[in-house]
Write a structure and sequence with these properties.
Layout lengths: L2 H25 L3 E3 L5 E3 H17 L5 E3 H5 L9 E9 L1 H5 L6 E8 L2 E9 L4 E6 L4 E5 L2 E5 L9 E6 L5 H8 L4 E7 L3 H7 L5 E4 L3 E2 H13 L3 E4 L13 E2 L2 E4 L3
Parallel strand pairs: 3-4, 10-11
Antiparallel strand pairs: 1-2, 4-5, 5-6, 6-7, 7-8, 8-9, 12-16, 13-15, 14-16
Protein backbone atom coordinates (compact mmCIF):
# COMPACT_ATOMS: atom_id res chain seq x y z
CA UNK A 1 0.00 0.00 0.00
CA UNK A 2 1.25 3.50 -0.75
CA UNK A 3 1.06 6.32 1.79
CA UNK A 4 -2.24 7.71 0.48
CA UNK A 5 -3.84 4.28 0.82
CA UNK A 6 -2.43 3.94 4.34
CA UNK A 7 -3.90 7.32 5.24
CA UNK A 8 -7.34 6.32 4.00
CA UNK A 9 -7.07 3.03 5.88
CA UNK A 10 -6.32 4.92 9.09
CA UNK A 11 -9.17 7.38 8.47
CA UNK A 12 -11.65 4.55 7.97
CA UNK A 13 -10.50 2.75 11.10
CA UNK A 14 -10.63 5.97 13.15
CA UNK A 15 -14.24 6.54 12.07
CA UNK A 16 -15.20 2.95 12.92
CA UNK A 17 -13.41 3.13 16.26
CA UNK A 18 -15.23 6.38 17.03
CA UNK A 19 -18.56 4.69 16.42
CA UNK A 20 -17.56 1.84 18.76
CA UNK A 21 -16.60 4.35 21.46
CA UNK A 22 -19.93 6.17 21.19
CA UNK A 23 -21.78 2.85 21.39
CA UNK A 24 -20.04 2.05 24.69
CA UNK A 25 -20.86 5.50 26.02
CA UNK A 26 -24.52 5.09 25.08
CA UNK A 27 -24.94 1.85 27.05
CA UNK A 28 -22.76 2.83 30.02
CA UNK A 29 -19.36 1.66 31.21
CA UNK A 30 -17.10 1.24 34.23
CA UNK A 31 -13.77 3.03 34.69
CA UNK A 32 -10.81 0.87 35.74
CA UNK A 33 -7.23 1.81 36.64
CA UNK A 34 -4.07 0.55 34.98
CA UNK A 35 -0.82 -0.07 36.85
CA UNK A 36 0.21 3.57 36.31
CA UNK A 37 -3.15 4.68 37.79
CA UNK A 38 -4.36 6.11 34.47
CA UNK A 39 -7.99 5.28 33.61
CA UNK A 40 -9.13 2.71 31.05
CA UNK A 41 -12.59 1.62 29.92
CA UNK A 42 -14.30 -0.92 27.71
CA UNK A 43 -14.31 1.78 25.01
CA UNK A 44 -10.49 1.98 25.00
CA UNK A 45 -10.20 -1.76 24.54
CA UNK A 46 -12.95 -2.12 21.94
CA UNK A 47 -11.57 0.72 19.82
CA UNK A 48 -8.01 -0.62 20.03
CA UNK A 49 -9.04 -4.15 19.08
CA UNK A 50 -10.83 -2.83 15.99
CA UNK A 51 -7.94 -0.60 14.92
CA UNK A 52 -5.07 -3.04 15.41
CA UNK A 53 -6.95 -5.86 13.69
CA UNK A 54 -7.63 -3.60 10.71
CA UNK A 55 -4.04 -2.36 10.47
CA UNK A 56 -2.52 -5.82 10.78
CA UNK A 57 -4.89 -7.32 8.23
CA UNK A 58 -4.35 -4.58 5.62
CA UNK A 59 -0.61 -3.98 6.12
CA UNK A 60 0.87 -6.98 7.98
CA UNK A 61 4.42 -5.85 7.21
CA UNK A 62 4.07 -2.75 9.43
CA UNK A 63 4.36 -3.35 13.21
CA UNK A 64 1.66 -1.85 15.44
CA UNK A 65 2.42 -0.26 18.81
CA UNK A 66 -0.87 0.26 20.66
CA UNK A 67 -1.35 1.79 24.11
CA UNK A 68 -3.45 -0.91 25.75
CA UNK A 69 -1.35 -3.74 24.30
CA UNK A 70 1.76 -2.09 25.73
CA UNK A 71 0.00 -1.70 29.09
CA UNK A 72 -0.81 -5.41 28.92
CA UNK A 73 2.84 -6.33 28.41
CA UNK A 74 3.11 -6.67 24.63
CA UNK A 75 6.49 -5.13 23.84
CA UNK A 76 7.56 -4.40 20.27
CA UNK A 77 10.96 -2.94 19.48
CA UNK A 78 11.11 0.24 17.39
CA UNK A 79 11.80 -0.32 13.70
CA UNK A 80 12.21 1.87 10.62
CA UNK A 81 8.43 2.01 10.24
CA UNK A 82 5.59 1.35 12.68
CA UNK A 83 2.08 2.41 13.61
CA UNK A 84 1.35 4.18 16.90
CA UNK A 85 -2.22 3.82 18.15
CA UNK A 86 -4.00 5.57 21.01
CA UNK A 87 -7.53 4.23 20.67
CA UNK A 88 -9.08 6.74 23.07
CA UNK A 89 -6.89 9.71 23.91
CA UNK A 90 -8.58 11.66 26.66
CA UNK A 91 -10.13 8.83 28.65
CA UNK A 92 -10.62 11.23 31.56
CA UNK A 93 -12.67 13.50 29.30
CA UNK A 94 -14.68 10.52 28.07
CA UNK A 95 -15.30 9.20 31.59
CA UNK A 96 -16.37 12.66 32.79
CA UNK A 97 -18.97 12.95 30.03
CA UNK A 98 -17.11 15.69 28.17
CA UNK A 99 -16.49 15.82 24.43
CA UNK A 100 -12.72 16.32 24.20
CA UNK A 101 -11.56 12.78 23.45
CA UNK A 102 -10.05 11.51 20.21
CA UNK A 103 -8.77 8.47 18.32
CA UNK A 104 -5.10 8.69 17.27
CA UNK A 105 -3.56 6.57 14.51
CA UNK A 106 -0.09 7.65 13.41
CA UNK A 107 2.68 6.19 11.28
CA UNK A 108 6.36 6.64 12.11
CA UNK A 109 8.99 6.32 9.42
CA UNK A 110 12.70 6.73 10.18
CA UNK A 111 11.99 8.35 13.52
CA UNK A 112 9.55 10.93 12.17
CA UNK A 113 5.78 11.30 12.45
CA UNK A 114 5.03 10.80 8.77
CA UNK A 115 1.29 10.27 8.61
CA UNK A 116 -1.57 10.78 11.02
CA UNK A 117 -5.30 10.60 11.53
CA UNK A 118 -7.11 12.07 14.53
CA UNK A 119 -10.81 11.29 14.85
CA UNK A 120 -13.15 13.22 17.16
CA UNK A 121 -16.06 10.85 17.81
CA UNK A 122 -18.30 13.35 19.61
CA UNK A 123 -18.30 15.83 16.70
CA UNK A 124 -17.67 13.56 13.72
CA UNK A 125 -14.52 15.48 12.76
CA UNK A 126 -11.55 13.62 11.31
CA UNK A 127 -8.16 15.25 10.74
CA UNK A 128 -5.62 13.68 8.41
CA UNK A 129 -2.22 14.40 6.88
CA UNK A 130 0.87 13.04 5.21
CA UNK A 131 4.16 14.92 5.45
CA UNK A 132 4.64 16.95 2.29
CA UNK A 133 1.02 16.53 1.15
CA UNK A 134 -0.77 19.04 3.38
CA UNK A 135 -3.42 18.46 6.05
CA UNK A 136 -7.18 18.18 5.87
CA UNK A 137 -10.26 18.12 8.05
CA UNK A 138 -13.37 16.10 7.28
CA UNK A 139 -16.79 16.71 8.84
CA UNK A 140 -20.44 16.97 7.81
CA UNK A 141 -19.49 19.65 5.28
CA UNK A 142 -16.98 17.36 3.53
CA UNK A 143 -13.19 17.29 3.36
CA UNK A 144 -11.11 20.45 3.01
CA UNK A 145 -7.52 21.58 3.43
CA UNK A 146 -6.49 23.22 6.69
CA UNK A 147 -3.53 25.42 7.60
CA UNK A 148 -2.19 27.15 10.65
CA UNK A 149 -2.55 30.91 11.02
CA UNK A 150 -0.13 33.82 11.56
CA UNK A 151 0.06 35.18 15.09
CA UNK A 152 -2.98 37.45 15.65
CA UNK A 153 -2.32 41.11 16.30
CA UNK A 154 -4.25 40.97 19.56
CA UNK A 155 -2.12 38.15 21.00
CA UNK A 156 -1.79 34.40 21.09
CA UNK A 157 -4.53 31.95 21.87
CA UNK A 158 -2.75 29.42 24.07
CA UNK A 159 -4.10 25.94 24.76
CA UNK A 160 -3.38 24.08 27.98
CA UNK A 161 -4.14 20.64 29.35
CA UNK A 162 -7.32 20.36 31.41
CA UNK A 163 -6.11 17.39 33.46
CA UNK A 164 -2.31 17.72 33.44
CA UNK A 165 -1.69 21.45 33.65
CA UNK A 166 1.33 22.94 35.44
CA UNK A 167 0.22 26.51 36.00
CA UNK A 168 3.51 27.90 37.39
CA UNK A 169 5.53 26.48 34.49
CA UNK A 170 2.97 27.65 31.96
CA UNK A 171 3.00 31.17 33.38
CA UNK A 172 6.80 31.23 33.35
CA UNK A 173 6.88 29.99 29.75
CA UNK A 174 4.40 32.64 28.61
CA UNK A 175 6.07 35.51 30.44
CA UNK A 176 6.90 38.29 27.97
CA UNK A 177 4.63 36.93 25.23
CA UNK A 178 1.53 38.69 23.99
CA UNK A 179 -1.31 36.39 25.07
CA UNK A 180 -4.97 37.06 24.34
CA UNK A 181 -6.29 34.13 26.38
CA UNK A 182 -5.59 30.61 27.62
CA UNK A 183 -8.11 27.85 26.89
CA UNK A 184 -8.13 24.36 28.45
CA UNK A 185 -8.77 21.23 26.43
CA UNK A 186 -8.30 17.51 26.89
CA UNK A 187 -6.48 15.12 24.55
CA UNK A 188 -4.67 15.67 21.24
CA UNK A 189 -7.60 17.76 20.06
CA UNK A 190 -5.53 20.75 21.20
CA UNK A 191 -2.91 20.07 18.54
CA UNK A 192 -5.55 19.75 15.82
CA UNK A 193 -7.08 23.08 16.81
CA UNK A 194 -3.67 24.66 16.15
CA UNK A 195 -3.50 22.87 12.79
CA UNK A 196 -6.83 24.31 11.63
CA UNK A 197 -5.91 27.85 12.71
CA UNK A 198 -8.17 28.11 15.77
CA UNK A 199 -5.28 28.65 18.23
CA UNK A 200 -1.57 29.41 18.22
CA UNK A 201 0.48 27.73 20.94
CA UNK A 202 0.36 24.63 23.15
CA UNK A 203 3.22 24.04 25.59
CA UNK A 204 3.13 20.61 27.21
CA UNK A 205 4.86 19.98 30.53
CA UNK A 206 4.74 16.48 31.95
CA UNK A 207 4.53 12.90 30.82
CA UNK A 208 3.16 11.96 27.41
CA UNK A 209 3.71 8.92 25.26
CA UNK A 210 4.54 8.60 21.57
CA UNK A 211 1.04 7.32 20.76
CA UNK A 212 -0.37 10.54 22.25
CA UNK A 213 1.54 12.75 19.82
CA UNK A 214 2.42 10.98 16.58
CA UNK A 215 -0.85 11.39 14.70
CA UNK A 216 -1.56 15.00 15.73
CA UNK A 217 2.07 15.99 15.14
CA UNK A 218 1.83 14.74 11.56
CA UNK A 219 -1.34 16.81 11.10
CA UNK A 220 0.11 19.98 12.64
CA UNK A 221 3.41 19.83 10.74
CA UNK A 222 1.64 19.20 7.43
CA UNK A 223 -0.57 22.22 8.16
CA UNK A 224 2.45 24.49 8.67
CA UNK A 225 3.13 24.17 12.38
CA UNK A 226 5.77 22.50 14.53
CA UNK A 227 6.23 20.23 17.53
CA UNK A 228 9.58 20.81 19.20
CA UNK A 229 11.25 19.86 22.46
CA UNK A 230 12.39 22.59 24.83
CA UNK A 231 15.80 22.74 23.14
CA UNK A 232 14.20 23.43 19.76
CA UNK A 233 14.60 19.91 18.30
CA UNK A 234 11.72 18.38 16.35
CA UNK A 235 9.96 15.79 18.50
CA UNK A 236 11.15 12.40 17.26
CA UNK A 237 10.12 8.76 17.70
CA UNK A 238 11.56 5.45 18.82
CA UNK A 239 12.55 6.71 22.29
CA UNK A 240 13.12 4.38 25.26
CA UNK A 241 9.80 3.36 26.77
CA UNK A 242 7.94 5.35 24.08
CA UNK A 243 8.04 8.36 26.44
CA UNK A 244 8.19 11.99 25.25
CA UNK A 245 10.04 14.89 26.86
CA UNK A 246 8.32 18.25 27.38
CA UNK A 247 7.48 19.92 24.08
CA UNK A 248 5.86 22.96 22.47
CA UNK A 249 3.36 22.90 19.61
CA UNK A 250 3.27 26.10 17.56
CA UNK A 251 0.88 27.11 14.83
CA UNK A 252 3.62 28.59 12.72
CA UNK A 253 7.11 27.08 12.79
Amino acid sequence: MDDLALLELAADLAARAGAAILAVRARGFAVERKDDRSPVTEADRAAEALIVAGLRAAAPEIPVIAEEEVAGGRITAPSAQYWLVDPLDGTREFAAGREGFVVNIGLVRNGRALLGVVGVPSTGEIFGAIAGHGAWKQDAAGRRAITTRPQPADGLVVLASRSHGDVPRLEAFLAGRSVARVEKYGSALKICRLAEGAADLYPRFGRTMEWDTCAPQAVLEAAGGSVRTMDGTRLGYGKPGWENPDFVCAGRD
